[in-house]
UniProtKB/TrEMBL annotation:
Catalyzes the reversible phosphorolytic breakdown of the N-glycosidic bond in the beta-(deoxy)ribonucleoside molecules, with the formation of the corresponding free purine bases and pentose-1-phosphate. CDD domains: PNP_EcPNPI-like. InterPro entries: DeoD-type (IPR004402), Nucleoside_phosphorylase_CS (IPR018016), Nucleoside_phosphorylase_d (IPR000845), Nucleoside_phosphorylase_sf (IPR035994). A purine D-ribonucleoside binds at H5, D180, M181, E182, S204, D205. The record marks R218 as: Important for catalytic activity. Belongs to the PNP/UDP phosphorylase family. This is Purine nucleoside phosphorylase DeoD-type. Phosphate binds at G21, R25, R44, R88, I89, G90, T91. PANTHER family: FI09636P-RELATED, URIDINE PHOSPHORYLASE. Pfam families: PNP_UDP_1 (PF01048).
């Protein structure tokens, strides 16, 4: 039962899907971490795979960049493929002095400059929040791994390149933990369709001092986040 953007069969997906932005990362996760994995989508090269992690069926599919892309894949997965839990594993920027490159951050709620949730929420402010149990499970895993973790408010933006100094000052004033381009939309769709979602990100850019991870560093720090997401997926009921 293909959708406009996913050409997979009804039972190809697990009810838990890990979602990086980048299709190359989806392939990397599937090949490195999943046993008996098969590719189940390649439409628009938005690659998807299903396999087993410690005997649990898990799927991984990329969601592309930005809310319009991520939200349509999440919607089709929930409505047409019976997916119940989404774990976004992405990269993000930060403005905070107490957060460094490579840190793992978890999005409890996501503010945004996007109108995506407003359009669906009668032009009011929807509070885009993570599933509470999924936050607790991820934090439990991270603590066992003895990795630093910070849980807080993200800002999901439609514009990666933004030199609006006033807006950056406001984000700092409100103690925004991280900036990404998808989470508020993913949380909005999950709420609307009664699914659960969590966004875990690795800090790849420090916006105030201009530091950013090299591609090698991105890959190494990404591995921690993949392990966190996979081990958390084992705890999800
Ligand atoms: N802004 C928005 N999204 C991002 C960033 C950023 O600085 N880094 C990685 N994803």
């Amino acid at each position: 039962m293909p959708t406009p953007h996913i050409d997979s069969k009804k039972n190809d997906f697990s009810d838990i899907v890990l979602m990086p932005g980048d299709p190359v990362r989806a392939k990397y996760i599937a090949e490195k971490y999943l046993d008996d994995c098969i590719q189940i989508n390649k439409t628009r090269l938005m690659l998807a795979y299903t396999g087993f992690f410690k005997n649990k069926k898990i799927s991984v599919m990329s969601h592309g960049i930005g809310i319009p892309s991520a939200s349509l894949y999440v919607r089709e997965l929930i409505l047409e493929y019976n997916v119940k839990k989404i774990i976004r594993i992405g990269t993000c920027g930060t403005l905070r002095d107490d957060i460094s490159l490579r840190d793992v951050v978890i999005c409890m709620g996501a503010s945004t400059d996007s109108k995506f949730n407003r359009i669906k929420f009668n032009n009011h402010d929807f509070s885009a929040i993570a599933d509470f149990d999924m936050i607790c499970q991820a934090v439990e895993v991270i603590k066992k791994m003895k990795i630093k973790v910070c849980v807080g408010n993200f800002f999901t933006t439609d514009s990666f390149y933004n030199d609006d100094k006033k807006m950056l000052d406001i984000l700092k004033k409100y103690n925004i933990l991280a900036i990404d381009m998808e989470t508020s939309g993913i949380y909005g769709v999950a709420a609307e369709l009664k699914a659960k979602a969590l966004s875990i990100c690795t800090v790849s850019d420090h916006i105030l001092n201009g530091e950013s991870l090299s591609s090698k560093d991105r890959e190494l720090s990404f591995n921690n986040m993949i392990k966190i997401a996979l081990e958390s997926a084992l705890l999800i009921k």
